[in-house]
Amino acid sequence: MHIDPEKAKALPFRPIEAEIERGRLRFFAKAIGQRDPVYSDVEAARRAGHPDLPVPPTFFFSLEIDDPGSLSFLAELDIDLGRILHGEQSFTYHSLAYAGETLMLQPKITDVYSKKGGALQFLVKRTDITRLTGEPVAEATFSLAISHPEVRA
Amino acid sequence: MTTTTEIAVGTELPPLRIEPISRATLALFAGASGDHMPIHIDSDAAKKFGYDDVFAQGMLSMAYLGRLLTDWVPQHKIRSYRVRFTAVTPLYAEPTCTGRVTDITDGVATLELTVTLADGTVTLRGDATVDLS
User: Fold this and answer.
1) Residue A112: inside a domain, yes or no?
2) Which of B48, B60, B78 sits opposite A32 (nearest CB)?
3) Which residue in A58, A92, A141 is closest to B59 by CB distance?
4) Contact B90, B97 (CB under 8 A)
5) Out of B3, B36, B97, B127, which could bridge B68 as a Cys pair, Cβ 3.0 to 4.6 Å?
6) Which of A39, A58, A127 is the best residue to mutate to test the B interface, defined by the most B CB atoms within 10 Å of its own CB?
């Protein structure tokens, strides 16, 4: 079933409050084979001038999907999990974030467009990431490709 | 870590070779990243969706490419980082992350980034901008 762009763009997303935990950052570092101790050893991070373990470049994606409601838009738009692929992902950075901080994430669907005569649809979701003071930390943009094999291109 | 005075258009980042992707790699990344989609960790679910077996999370490859960047410059120098996922990464694949400087304007370098498997398949293409000042 095709996504109605106007319905998607009007979907409300509540803000997500995300605490950054040292243990989770160490687990993430281990899972990606990170050997730089700045990302797992607080003393090494401090020696490099950081107040604590830094949040690595792609971890903001995890802060968002940790929220139990973060994927509910898929069900609300009747998107079949068997037909989706992560198409693109981007981040723009303003300042580093660290373990011990609490960040606010505000997602919003900003675009829905079709390609190949409607056989493929793309949904674009942008998330603004800030400190509790409102200071910007990063923006994340997620692009999902949804196939509609019933449409012949 | 590289000093920024050595960087010019055409500079290649030292390639980052990744250990072959195992089921354990995918299970660990599912837990650490919070992406619990069964298609990456449960062979039965992958088959139900028409795949031969589980395959790697796209964000795992993006995290590997992120390591290439932070091995090269301190993370606060990275202004933007984006990728397009062009092919799935199957089990046992051996990804290599590469990057090359394609432009330097006003003290900001643009890097072209790629993840390539041992058989030549390109799984990710992307770019990043890095502050050289």
Assistant:
1) yes
2) B60
3) A58
4) no
5) B97
6) A58
CB contact under 8 A, A96 and B75: yes
Residue with tokens 């091995």: B71
Q: Is B50 left (phi over 0), alpha (psi -120 to 50) or beta?
A: left
Indicate the pLDDT class of residue A100, thresholds 50, 70 and 90: very high
Residue B32 in any domain: the answer is no
Through-space distance between the first and last CA atoms of chain B, rounded to whole angstroms: 15
Closest-CA residue of chain A to B60:
A32
B67·A27 Cβ contact <8 A: no
Q: What distance in Å separates the CA atoms of residue B52 and residue B31, rounded to the nearest whole number?
A: 23
Output the domain CATH number for residue B67. Answer: 3.10.129.10
This prediction has a pTM of 0.95
Each residue's pLDDT tens digit, A8-43: 999 999 999 999 999 999 999 999 999 999 999 999
Q: pLDDT tens, B39-61? A: 999 999 999 989 999 999 999 99
What is the pLDDT, as a whole number, of residue B3?
Answer: 58
